[in-house]
Protein: DUF4173 domain-containing protein
Organism: Mycolicibacterium sediminis
Amino acid sequence: MPARTSPHPHAPMAAPPIIGPQLPRHGEPGWTIWPHRSWPFDPLAAAPRRVVRLALVVAVVGGLFWRVSVLSIGYLLVGALVFGVVYGTAERRPTRREWLGIAATLMLLAVPAILAAEWLGVLCISAAWLVGWTTLAGGRTWTAIVTGPFLPWLVPARVVGWTRRSLSTGRVDRRGRPAVGRVVLVAVITAVLVVVFGSLFASADPAFARLVDNLMPEWNVFDAQVRVLVGLLVAFFVLGGGYLLRHRPRLDAMAPARRPAIPNWEWAVPLAVLDVLFIGFVVVQATVLFGGHAHVLGTDGLTYAEYARQGFWQLLWVSALTLLVLSVVIRVASRETAPDRRLLRLLVGTLCATSVVVVVSAIHRMWLYQEAYGFSVQRVVVIAIELWLGAVFVLIALAGVRMTACWLPTAVLFAGVVTLLGLAALDPERMIADRNVDRYEQTGQLDVDYLQRLSSDVAPALARLPDDVQACASYRAEDRGSWNEFNLSRWQAARDDRSTTVCLSYGE
């Protein structure tokens, strides 16, 4: 019997056997660039037929009535339809967090239907995009909130395949319902019949023609191309939202793991010194905060402009950098024992409390500056940013009380939404115009050029001006547009029967 020979010591070891199915490789069905633990991919999943049908209907409605370039009720209409189809066709009801996200998104999309200020409309639409897609994608960590708004640009390939598999199952599904292709064909034939006979009826009767003009927007070749693109965009919103709701990525799994805690003295010493510095600033600011105008006027060489400009932006940077410091400290600080938690609460709580005073000081500086030199959009917006930062410091302090912050990312996001909606509720451009008119009544000074650059939101404030100072009405048009372009501010301005050619100017 031959003796057994041992393997050569330098021979390569055999690969261990693979237990279970191997993940698909590049080019194979089911392959994805996302880790399967973060976002598994089902290559056989198909979109429900009713989702595809309703997506086509919403696409037609959106293409006909939503103009992306116009702040109008169209944004709210499309947002409500998208959420209605996505959650109305789902197999479950929205959670309380999802209801909150839906409500916040629709409230933000309602702002372009109420106010005409373009800068505010763009901010609200951007915030609605952030909140809406974060709601559909799910997740509670900072990673989920930052990643969620980018998912629409990462899912087109999945959505196309998901939809194509739904369309490739024949003309009639198992329940006897017509296939989507047949529905599209019938819809096209119906549209052609409506256009042909509607045109004939409109040419035959002026009253019917006016009705058609009011219900349907004007058409031209370029406009038709734009509306097709808008319709495709709306269809993608519905299908993309439906896909995310049924095949959600696990964005929380992508969050970085918690780093090992470092010794307390390594983070406590710098933070304690920073606390002392903040406390010193707060003590000095006590005189300033309660001094008001007397402090500015009683200090040699100090003007309102210097007081605000030399301090406000620095304090805004202080608030932002403080959030960065707190985020680092919270990640590296130990909280295993009761003394560790007490030390963290004391130092972080002190920094949060003094940071709120810094926020109040910055707002105070800017408010005095506006009272002296007039209100403007930029000054009001930065005050709103400071208010949001102050709310963030309060939320961080509350999270430190029980040493749990799983709710903090969502709370910070919705604090920003509340701040933006509060700003919209103030009707900022009208408020700015009102304050400038008040200042004109007291001092006789009025920034004519600046008020002319504002939107029709300022119309009620300009109506308060005396007869020798006429309000600019160049934005008031007799044509209010079709219903899908409705905007409350523009509609009210169009009702004004004053001249549409006289612009704001000083009288003799």
Remarks:
- Residues 338-373 form the longest helix (36 residues).
- The chain is about 65% helix and 0% strand.
- Residues 341 and 403 are 8 Å apart (CA to CA).
